Amino acid sequence: xxxxxxxxxxxxxxxxxxxxxxxxxxxxxxxxxxxxxxxxxxxxxxxxxxxxxxxxxxxxxxxxxxxxxxxxxxxxxxxxxxxxxxxxxxxxxxxxxxxxxxxxxxxxxxxxxxxxxxxxxxxxxxxxxxxxxxxxxxxxxxxxxxxxxxxxxxxxxxxx
Length: 160
Known about the structure:
- By secondary structure, the chain is an alpha+beta fold.
- It has a single domain, classed as Gcn5-related N-acetyltransferase (GNAT) (Aminopeptidase).
- The protein is 29% helix and 30% strand.
- Helix 1 packs across helix 2.
- The radius of gyration is 15 Å and the shape is globular.
C-alpha cells in the first residue's frame, strides 16, 4: 500500500486489493455504514470491490484508505469526487469499530488541507443522510455549513 499523505494518527494510502476484506466488512454493514453512504446495492461481493479498487486506481481517483498509525488497523475510506479546478465533493465512510474515536474529524480536516494544497480547491461540498446526525455534527465541527436540504440529503459546503 502506497502512502500518499498522513495526519497525526492516520496514514492515508492508495486503495488496495489487500484491504478488500476490510472494505467488505464496512460496506456490508447496513446499520452503521451502508444505509448512510448512498450505496447502490445491499450487499457487495469480493468481485464488486475488486472492480471498484481497480477502477479507482486506473483513473487515479483521489480516494484513500485510512490506516490507524498506532495499530495498523483499517479505519475507512475518504475521497474527493467530481474534482474540478475549483471544487470537489467529499465522501467518507468509517468502519463501525473505528467510529466515535475522532478519526472522522481528523480525516476530514486532513483531506481539506490535501484538497487545497494538491488540487487548489476553493470549495468542498458534500451530501449527508439527514438521519446521520453524528456525521452532520462532525462536518459542522470541520467548518461545513448547510446550504440546502430535502428528505434524502443535507447539502453542506466549505469554502477554503
